Amino acid sequence: MPKLDFDVITLGHGSGGVLTNKLLKSGVFDLLKNPLLDTHHDGAVFELNGKTAFSTDSYVISPIFFPGGNIGELAINGTVNDLAMCGAQPKYLSLSFIIEEGLKMTEFWEVLVSIKKAADTAGVQIVTGDTKVVEKGKGDKLFINTAGVGQLMSKANIDMNQVKPGDKVIVSDSIANHGIAVMSIREGLEFETSILSDTRPLNGIVGKLIEEFGYDIHLLRDATRGGVASVLNEIAQDAQVGIEILQKHTPVDPEVEGACEMLGLDPLYVANEGVFMIIADAQIADDIVQMLRTFEGSKKATILGEIVEGHKRQVILQSAIGGKRVLNMLVGEQLPRIC
């Protein structure tokens, strides 16, 4: 960590004056250094060829540090993954901080280092951004906004209109780890084994899938807030199809399942940060699962269900004992401030 004149963030660090300059030059600009950011301009100029995807998101997770990650890498991975779900390879990101007065410099630096590592892992550059400081009590340590652009992959045709009856629904890995990891810190829970957030960039995996299977991949969605159940409900409603899934095919780690039972939560509604859903042609579904299982972070990929003609706009869950029930859209916020 570079030597700074203050141990905590002060209002002066958001003034646009000397302290802001010191904070940026001794920390942000040096750590995230690249030719586009080095201009220290309010914007960035770059070239992209062909179709371009654009996404933005804000991160207000509480607490800002949690088992397996922190708000910094979450912000980078989140926008990288949103672009990947469009069938694009992320290229450039903006990064904006809203910092509460009193945040420890050591904590801010730890977040910055995680941002740098996450950006390098995903292969993206942070090319512009902004920093604001609000009075103590007017924020919650640190909020982050990221926006990103990426180039659409030539074999990608990710579109809700592509979804059709007979398509298979694939989930990339075990679900609910992120939400339970965050809840464990909030509630002071201790488990026999450590439950870690699954935050990770997905663009590498998605790029290889699209290169291999191309147009036969009809839709991609990451199962963040609201979990798998909410994503499937959105797909059913927007594509005007029915979806049927099997509870016995739902990948949930035993310790996560136990924690959900203790907390009264359904893992299908718990947030993820490194799990995504694939709607694909039935003929290639098994091949997709086999390929996914070759990557770290998708070892438990499985076919969860399928798109059907009946009960349009609804998701039906077949329980492990054979019964069926409607899997409704989440009402309200099951786990607030989860990302």
UniProtKB/TrEMBL annotation:
Residues 41-151 form the PurM-like N-terminal domain. Gene3D superfamilies: PurM-like C-terminal domain, PurM-like, N-terminal domain. One of its GO terms (biological process) is protein maturation. Pfam families: AIRS, AIRS_C. Residues 164-316 form the PurM-like C-terminal domain. InterPro entries: HypE (IPR011854), PurM-like_C_dom (IPR010918), PurM-like_C_sf (IPR036676), PurM-like_N (IPR016188), PurM-like_N_sf (IPR036921). Belongs to the HypE family. This is Hydrogenase.
